[in-house]
UniProtKB/TrEMBL annotation:
SUPFAM superfamilies: RmlC-like cupins (SSF51182). It comes from Microbacterium soli. The gene is manA. It catalyses: D-mannose 6-phosphate = D-fructose 6-phosphate. This is mannose-6-phosphate isomerase. PROSITE patterns: PMI_I_1.
Length: 380
């Protein structure tokens, strides 16, 4: 069975006022539009034409959540737990009210993510760069007590373990409230900084600082890798990896969870001790997964979800292991299943295929993303 899915954009403050409307070919609402959820997550299940929501069909059993994400401003710096950490944390906080803002764990699941760029550029911060590179960046800053203290805390980076420990201590110091004067010094120095090889990263962080001038997350961002994705390119964000989306439109898929530990650029609760307990501070680049022509299968090393991007041209039949979601992001595309009935998929909307649908035929021309459970998980 195939079912058309729609949903209203979520109005988070960081959302873009134009990107989702432009994708869907409609007049902007004038309000921030951040995400459109295509899934059965209880926070905002997708809507069906008959007035039901998708969770009424699935019983809330989908292991993944597929989204359109439009960032007009930087999201909070954040990290997600492993499944074991989520189970332990959820049990520990079981006595807290679910709406308590100090609650870290909303469920007992992990939340690995994959983001694929749709806009010409999609900017993100992902993982921590080697200390030696950050020290080279800091060498271009005007000398101040705050810059000197940050360099001292980072140390010399003599080994990966030493770097990881120095970065963990530095992040804890920045978020503890004890680094306000140093943060002010470092943010003030951004305007006069010109470090070769860091132009794009510095432009992005200056923009972040204008929005969050006293937030210690600005300096945490200085410690992170800056990544620019082109259309069809993706990064996978594993448990423990510090990250933040900065700007752009993308397709995001994740395990069905709402567990977020924040590390700056937010007015929401930050539990520094819990953040430091789950963040992986070993420096490393996060590899960019390149677009593979008319068909790209993204590398996802978890069983919760799989995602592929296709550019149908005419009729194209694909095998799926459902329950699957087909999301259209360009062109004019329809999909049919076992009964051969064609369902058009307007750009920015989706179709859900129940688990008994194993072969789908795409009709027309455009771009679609197909989400399904991952290999060796509840799917294939």
């Amino acid at each position: 069975m195939l079912l058309t899915l729609t949903n209203a954009p979520r109005d988070y403050a960081w959302g873009s006022t134009t990107l989702l409307a432009e994708l869907q070919g409609r007049t902007p609402s004038g309000a921030p539009e951040a995400e459109v959820w295509f899934g059965d997550h209880p926070g905002d299940p997708a809507e069906l034409p008959d007035g039901r929501t998708l969770d009424e069909v699935t019983g809330g059993s989908l292991p993944y959540l597929l989204k359109l994400l439009a960032a007009g401003a930087p999201l909070s710096i954040q990290v997600h737990p492993t499944r074991a950490q989520a189970r332990e944390g959820y049990a520990r906080e079981s006595a807290l009210d679910p709406a308590d803002p100090a609650r870290n764990y909303r469920d007992d699941n992990h939340k690995p993510e994959l983001i694929v760029a749709l806009s010409d550029t999609f900017e993100a911060l992902s993982g921590l760069r080697p200390v030696s590179q950050t020290l080279r960046l800091l060498a271009s800053f005007p000398e101040s007590a705050g810059v000197a203290e940050l360099r001292r805390r980072l140390g010399a980076g003599t080994s990966t373990d030493a770097e990881a420990e120095a970065l963990r201590d530095t992040i804890g110091w920045l978020l503890s409230g004890r680094a306000r004067a140093a943060v002010a010094d470092i943010v003030a120095g951004l305007a006069a900084t010109d470090a070769e090889g860091f132009d794009d990263a510095l432009d992005a962080i200056r923009g972040i600082a204008r929005r969050n001038p006293a937030d210690p997350g600005v300096v945490v961002a200085l410690l992170m890798n800056f990544v620019v994705l082109r259309p069809g390119e993706a990064i996978f964000l594993r448990a423990g990896l510090l990250h933040a989306y900065v700007s752009g439109l993308g397709v995001e898929i994740m395990a069905a969870s709402d567990n977020v530990l924040r590390g700056g650029l937010t007015s929401k609760h930050i539990d520094v001790d819990e953040l430091l307990a789950i963040v992986d501070t070993r420096p490393a680049e996060v590899p960019v997964q390149r677009r593979g022509g008319a068909a790209t299968v993204y590398d996802v090393p978890v069983p919760d979800f799989a995602l592929r991007r296709l550019e149908p041209a005419g009729d194209q039949t694909v095998t799926v292991t459902g329950p699957a979601i087909v999301l259209a992001t360009a062109g004019e595309v329809a999909v049919s299943g076992a009964d051969a009935r064609r369902l058009p998929i307007p750009v920015g909307e989706a179709v859900f295929a129940t688990a008994d649908e194993t072969r789908l035929t795409l009709h027309g021309h455009g771009e679609v993303f197909i989400a399904e459970p991952g290999r060796d998980g509840t799917g294939r």
